[in-house]
Design goal:
The protein is mostly helical and 186 residues long. 68% of the residues lie in helices and 0% in strands. The protein has one domain: Orthogonal Bundle (Cyclin A, domain 1). The protein is globular, with a radius of gyration of 18 Å. This is Rab-GAP TBC domain-containing protein.
Length: 186
Amino acid sequence: FHLLNIQRGNFKSTSTSIGVRSQLTTLASIMKTVDPKLHEHLENLDGGEYLFAFRMLMVLFRREFSFVDTMYLWELMWSMEYNPGLFSMLESDNGTSSANSKDENVLRQCGKFERKNLQVTKKDEIPLSVFIVASVLEAKNKRLLSEAKGLDDVVKILNDITGSLDAKKACRGALQIHEKYLNTVS
């Protein structure tokens, strides 16, 4: 249920924007930071808006991974998106003071990396799914750089991975990219 609430924003659109657009823009920023060569290549192919990643974010990798691996990813995304302070905030009468003290207790139980990331405000959070897309792109880096001569080639390369990716490997790559990105922009 929580994961579906997170995904709801992807389907909202107005006359000027598509809900998933902000994630695609964030993906472009991440790729520009962690792999400028691939980002430049994709921009030169008129793929700088990363619309080729639209399906991955909309259906959360259901096509790129096997069913079992997709379930693993969805569970992982839900658990990583979960904010431990949310429940205490909803339980408090005024929604502020007791939640803040409970959040401080949660932060004391975390390591340095987790504390830093839990303190990021909700609007600054980047969903794990965006980093998984970045991991998929990194895994296909050599092929994208050597074979992609246009956006059709990028889409074909990404369509060729249907059901063949390893979720645990993609997650490890996503977490490495996440850490590299946070260390670079912080």
